[in-house]
Amino acid sequence: MELTKEQQAILDGAKGETMAKVMKTLIMYGEIFGAEKLVPVTSQYNHLVTSFGLKALGPVYDLMDQLIQAGAVSGQKFSVDPRPLDPNVPANFLQNLVFKKFMYSKQDFYENQLRQLGLMNEDAFSCACYLDEQGNRPKKGEVLSWAESSAVVYANSVLGARCNRNSGIMDLMGSVAGYVPYFGLLTDEGRKATWVIRVETTKKPEAQLLGSAIGMKVMEDVPYVMGLDKWLGSDLDDAACAYLKDFGAATASNGAVGLYHIDGLTPEAKELGKALIAPDAKEYVIDDAELQRVKDNYPLVWKNPDATPKLCFVGCPHLSLQQLQDWTDRLEAALKENGRSKVCVPTVFTTAPGVRKAFEATGYGARLAATGVILSCICPLMYMNNPLCGPMPVITCSNKLRTYTTARYYTEDEILARITKGGDRA
């Protein structure tokens, strides 16, 4: 790999042994993917995927201590993924015991390390750090050192920033050194679409279901999606951004997509259009039948397929302010229609701390609470990783949560019916 004089000096120990190791790690990482150089990280803030103080992550805490003691802290303030715990989210005595004593017993210790390394603030815990209320929204063309898959795909696609799908800890290494290897989605060639997706549905496709279908088909490749303009329009307004947030998270978790282009809507597609499509691009047509086929083929891993749901999670990735308001309106209308005052399945909506504050400052906060829904800022995935929570019959409209846990997927309309009607009348 060709290094600049400054990069070579760091590798040679000019900033200490620990920084030399950081630089060597980045170089080895880049060489695996054929990177010929390192480029500067140019965003104002970083985002780390590792936010949970799992007892088993001893080597991570040792590494953090080495960085802190050597003064090799992040060159940027950073946000992190959501916290794993919230006492307001339903859990029995044994589940809570596992959470606090056996799983996340190092949470307070680890968060103190994060503060020393450069945590933005105490509200900087969200997988959707790019939401306006969270304050970590990179600009078009900025080079990032992120790892959280749903944040990476949003930053690349909706914001036009540049970031590879890095692993946890590598995101921190890039921020500490101030450089990342130049390959993949950082390059113009790596951002070309090798798939053309033609959406030919008769109604607006569910974001999480459409993203799932595309992710499973293209895997880590870049898709150029055509046909969504009739549903999303040509402006990245709140509704379009919320849709693409959930769509992208599904492409990234059900496949390994780090970038997608939406014809006439996302920044690079507006600027370059079909010039983004590689000459030998493959094609995938998605109609109503194809979406139904994808949904029908999701594995059902509940021990009892007919079990009554014990818990419902909405918000993975975290809900935006507009989504929270829309869900509240729909909940109130559905409950009134079904002659109920509160949801009949314990339900948790998850959102970013900054969004929660903005939401609760309006009349919507009290209205949502009146429906019986719990508003939390945790990571539902981290909750479901508890071995005593995994066997529970949990329902969700998140394809990311479905993919990584035992939660059962339903569309948003089906979820609304289940939590406001009860029984099997979805």
TrEMBL record:
Coiled coil: none annotated. One of its GO terms (molecular function) is lyase activity. Residues 1-408 form the Phosphomevalonate dehydratase large subunit-like domain. InterPro entries: PMDh-L-like_dom (IPR007506). Keywords: Iron, Lyase. This is Phosphomevalonate dehydratase large subunit-like domain-containing protein. It holds the Pfam family AcnX.
